[in-house]
Amino acid sequence: MKYHVDVNDTAGTAVVTFDVNEGGKMVIRHVKFEGNTVFSSGELLKAIKTRPKGIRYIFSGGGKLNSDTVEGDVAAIKEKYLGSGYIDVNVLAPRIDRQDEKADITFVIQEGPQYHVGKVVYNGAKVFTIPEVTKNAKIKPGAVYSPQAVRSDVKVVQDLYGTRGYIDFQAGASTTPGPGNTIDVTFNLEEGAQSYVEHINITGNTRTKDKVIRREFPLDPGDIFNTVYVDAAKQRLMNTKYFSKVETYPADTLVPGRKDLNVIVEEQRTGSFNFGAGFSSIDKLLGFAEITQANFDLTRWPYFTGGGQKFRIRAQYGTERKDFIISLTEPYFMDREIAVGTDIFYREASFTSDVYSERHYGFDITGRKRLTQFITGRAEYRLEDIGIFNVDSSASDAIKNEEGSRLKSQISLGLTYDTRDSLFLTRKGERVDLTAYVAGGFLGGKEDIYGFDLEGSKYFSLPFDGILTINGEVATVSTWANGDEVPIWDRLYLGGANNLRGFKFRDSGPKDENGEAIGGNTLARLTVEYTFPIVDKVRGAVFYDVGFVNAGTYDFGTGNINDDFGIGVRLDLPIGPVRIDYGFPLRTDQFSSKNGQFNFNIGYQF
User: Fold this and answer.
1) In angstroms, rounded to a whole number, what is the distance separating the alpha carbons of residues 194 and 172?
2) 493 vs 516: CA distance, rounded Å
3) Which of 106, 161, 190, 348 has the most CB atoms in a 10 Å sphere around its CB?
4) CA-based angle 225:231:233, to the nearest 5?
5) Three-state DSSP class for 502?
6) What is the pLDDT of residues 521-560, one digit of tens each?
7) What is the pLDDT of residues 48-61, one digit of tens each?
8) Rounded alpha-carbon distances, angstroms, from residue 474 to 65, 494, 547
9) What are the structural domains of the chain?
């Protein structure tokens, strides 16, 4: 940077002009580490945000030199060492070697020795015994010392006292050097007095009804002031997306041992209008428009907000399908923790077959209830008119006989067991879903069928962030009462992006003399899939799918097995998780293609 001064002697002033040469943007070529023996360079690179330029980090914004980010990375590296007991660690100012518009960044680390916990002392515990206080403690004699673990143990003790209403409880920790590379830790507790709830006061909600907020708090006046419940309720309120801010705090009252719980919320916009277009290997090209209100109130005209209900209108129009749906859900029906919803729908699809189109319209009413922490029960009644139309003249008699429409009246019951750690990219846990249904008979309508579907998934977290998924399903459908045959739209099919990915949609199973899928009454399938990280936000996949569809009810014979193997990628994009697979069929029937199939879908897993 250069400057020059122009002096005006007459006016007694001067003008200073700075000439700035900005240069080009610096691009990070390499990120290096020196002095690290405890952690590999790869492990340290994962702990920081600075990344070299390259396709591997294209989705994480790598390659740009930012001084603020580099300074934050110094703290991140130090925090990683502290968490493993290296209390004397020192991370020097990074060395930046510039060459033209490229830069190499080197983090220099002085690790020091590892420290362990020596003596642990708790002072001031009277309400709980020492074994109760230390039950879930991480800081124990002989353990690796970590400041994060000390803070975690303080929070554990605070929560323990908070469950009993000791909201004035105070806890702190002090450390002193011990013999050798050990650190003694002393926890000092000030218990205070136990408190009960006097009133729950809510402010800031101009649209949302008090009861929508109050029902998230499992506390009533007179209950023990449980701070853990309060923190959980605060998080649930934030998860509703009704509020941009939720604050809670206790307030003194004139009644000894009683405190008010004050809740302050800041509301945010909860309605939206979205439109766009998409593509999948099944639906092909599709456009949509959608209006949603997450905090809907059917009784509050003309604003229709503040009741905590979920409302949605969605219209889709594409080359292979047309959909229109109006949906309303009340998550606390009759002020009980039972979700009740209804859908009014119209669906028209031509992707189900090359020789006919299919139409559904009607409504359903669904109730859901959480039975335990991991189990949810549901019940549904559905009334719909289902029809086959636009039947091609070349279609077989088996399909032509299905032309026309029938009224279907159905009740279904279901149970879901779900312990997954994430809905989008599950690394561990399981999900099992059982559905049983019956239509016709005493329910009326023109279809008399019943059936069940059982699907389960198990997820295993493997080294190097690998994920093994095992997914299976069995299902059957049959007739009862006056039913003589299961209609073609209620039969079972395999093939496509969500099961046998080496086959076309519905291409595995019984077919007519023209090779057109007509489905069967019994289905079983299994998928084994392994995914692994490639670069940030991109995972690779290898999979094997196997299954069969048999014409008979409860026919689990394995004579008609089809299977495939394949590879794929999983992308975590702003529009959502995207799954791209290519499957190669192994065992096929005479009508199925022996060539591989490309599948594109939104959603990571089964």
Assistant:
1) 19
2) 12
3) 161
4) 90
5) coil
6) 999 999 999 999 988 789 999 999 999 999 999 999 887 8
7) 988 887 655 555 55
8) 54, 12, 10
9) 27-110 (3.10.20.310), 116-190 (3.10.20.310), 196-267 (3.10.20.310), 394-602 (2.40.160.50)
